[in-house]
């Protein structure tokens, strides 16, 4: 079953200057997909448009068959959208438990405790110290908490914007271990990443976005060849040429 479908999506900050210039792809249930591309290609803008945080100017987005184009982010959470922004994705002055309790407000009261317990089962590093202030966590654990907040509501898709940005290599490893665990639990995962090597090791399929358009959509294994990736990043190959 198709979980997420973009058709000719156009989006950006100014209607006269679209950043995402007509992108189409589908993500199947349980799939794990990374979106790569050079700086400024529009990767973050595209996933923010999907998550209702950037205006769309054309095209459509469907989630589990329902048209969600242009819906605001708070409406999208209820439709099954899980989005983890790159920064400011947790409340650092609150405890781990409080961070989860706030996210759990979206759930019926009777389900909240069970879902928080499920997150603590999935992420024992968080469950072992619920009263720790989130600001005291390492960068990798903060991303884990941000992911747990988004997963509380059992989203149909979890989209992450550069979860390893600014982290040391050791913490990058931690973040990707977490993502591997989330994917293994059957969650449909889409991530934008600058860390090409780690992303390709995690995902089955990779998209390359160049100047707001898809330059490649295929098995992640195809891109382990750095030469092809370099050509794609520089815009020397189109999707047609690499197909
Ligand atoms: N809030 C904003 N307002 C106006 N323009 C923006 C805004 N955010 C990003 N842009 C512009 O949109 C273009 C695409 O940026 P975006 O962050 O989507 O690219 P990216 O592929 O995610 O790059 P990076 O990997 O560097 O984050 C850039 O030219 C950027 O300057």
From TrEMBL:
Give one GO term, molecular function aspect: ATP hydrolysis activity
Biological process terms from the Gene Ontology for this record are:
L-amino acid transport
Q: Does the keyword Disulfide bond apply?
A: no
Pfam annotation, one family: ABC_tran
Query: What PANTHER family does the database record attribute to this sequence?
Result: HIGH-AFFINITY BRANCHED-CHAIN AMINO ACID TRANSPORT ATP-BINDING PROTEIN LIVF
Its recorded name reads ABC transporter ATP-binding protein
> Domain named ABC transporter: which ranges?
4-236
The entry's family comment says: Belongs to the ABC transporter superfamily.
Q: Does the keyword Nucleotide-binding apply?
A: yes
UniProt keywords, alphabetically: Amino-acid transport, ATP-binding, Nucleotide-binding, Transport
- What is the protein's species of origin? Hoeflea olei
**Cross-referenced CDD domains:** ABC_TM1139_LivF_branched
